[in-house]
User: Fold these one by one.
Assistant:
Number 1:
Amino acid sequence: MADLSTSYMGVALKNPIVVAASSISNYVDKVKKVEEIGAGALVIRSLFEEQIQYDQSTMQDFLERAANISPEIHSSFYPPMEDTGPREHLMWVEKTRRAVEMPIFASLNAVSPGAWVDYAKQLEETGIAGLEVNYYIVAADPNVPGSDLEKALIDIVAKVTDAVSIPVAVKLSPYYTSTPNVVKGLAEAGAKGVVMFNRFLQPDIDVDTESLVNDMRYSSSQEMKVPLRWVALLYGRTEMDLILNTGIHSGKDVVKAILAGAAAVQSASALLDNGLPYISTMLMELQAWMDEKDYKSLDEFRGKVSQKNVEDAFGFERAQYMQLLMAQQ
Ligand SMILES: Cc1cc2nc3c(=O)[nH]c(=O)nc-3n(C[C@H](O)[C@H](O)[C@H](O)COP(=O)(O)O)c2cc1C
């Protein structure tokens, strides 16, 4: 049997399939099941600073309204305001981490620089194996150049990596102009891994109600091609571990990710679509492919089809429409 083990920012994983931050981590029983079925690790869904602010202000409003009706209600029946903050999330991260032996990673999405550092430290104290920085800003202001947004990201990452001693990965958006340059900045800021890429829900418009709708669709395997290209381009050009996320829907997709140069993959949609036992289907496919090719470890083929290692090095850089159009003439 081939050895599927890998290193994820220095953390040893028994295989490269990591459950991505998602609703799968909402219940400890589900996380235990993930471990039982054999995933390499799991990322708990993000601690969102905005959610905490929202919860606190909703609770504050409620307590103020309640106190106007009956002054005792404030102290007698409802929890102190601190308990509506990050504490609930932190307690639950620690509880989940204690319930399993596989490495558990936390994820953070904050707004203010101070909150990034405070929450990162508090998450580290829960005993997690590493932290994922889930940073995303929609560049909606025409007065802000992209370089300012990139600098803001890199500054936050430097502050977080200074504040904690666990490995930090950055979950990137696919929309940077120069992804390799941003990745270089993240490495200099002390990140140990880069998750390529986050998948953002795009709002739609309902033509009957003439309003916005947020419709939640899972990814397809086809969507893997964007991160596949970037992993292949970056392999061998950064010290950081490359973690391929978005569109991993089969064991063959995992093989492609490793061939491109990924240290590991993250998957959510395929597991939400097919159920958690699908982890073992993907693992069996990976194992069968390796056995057929007589590979004994992931290192034997990692990066074999990266830009650095293929003959057609420009194949990853140039769009191939011209060839396609000529073939169709
Ligand atoms: C229901 C659901 C919840 C998610 N929650 C988070 C989250 O809290 N933090 C985060 O960084 N990504 C979150 N994601 C994004 C996933 O981690 C992942 O990046 C994305 O789904 C792409 O991977 P996939 O193609 O395997 O689904 C969520 C995705 C889903 C489907």
Number 2:
Amino acid sequence: MTRFKKIALGVLVVLLGMQLIPSKNNTAPELEKHPLFVDYPTSHTVENTIRFACGDCHSNHTEYPWYSNIQPVGMWLDHHVEEGKEHFNIDAWNEYTPKKQKHKIEECMEVIESGEMPMESYVKMHPKANLTEVQKKEIKLWAKGLIDSLDRRHHLPKEIRSDR
Ligand code: HEC
């Protein structure tokens, strides 16, 4: 066997072995209503936009695409989901303090505005997540209303930038 063939065979064996690694770890059944949308009136439009643009990485339910069955793609996706949920989880909304809730919504407005979220690699594979200016505006209006409502209900300070 030539050296090249040995290397190619080695890579193939590793790739085949990798297929045995389990992935798809975020498979709680999708809730009829995510807790984030229960607390404050949310239009179906905004609810669906957030579900389709953010929900795969920021809820307890991911709609895994077919290519998630292929390693190392599956592991890569699971890593995004795990990290995404750590930062913000629309199903963990009720576990956040009002202060944290406000902070998270502020962060959402920021990352949508800056185009940081939804992640570019995700939008490429999910055209539905490519937010239009109108969708961004709708989310922003909703987010502002939610923040006002949290402020009023919990007498929160104006700016919260400290507790990440
Ligand atoms: C493909 C997965 C994915 C999608 C889709 C996605 N996110 Fe994220 N999100 C992440 C990951 C991973 C992180 C943490 C790493 C980082 O900051 O880049 C994150 C971080 C965040 C943070 C915390 C940012 C910070 O400054 O710490 C917020 C807020 C957020 N996402 C909101 C959203 C919103 C809103 C959407 C939908 C419009 C969205 N994300 C879509 C994966 C995703």
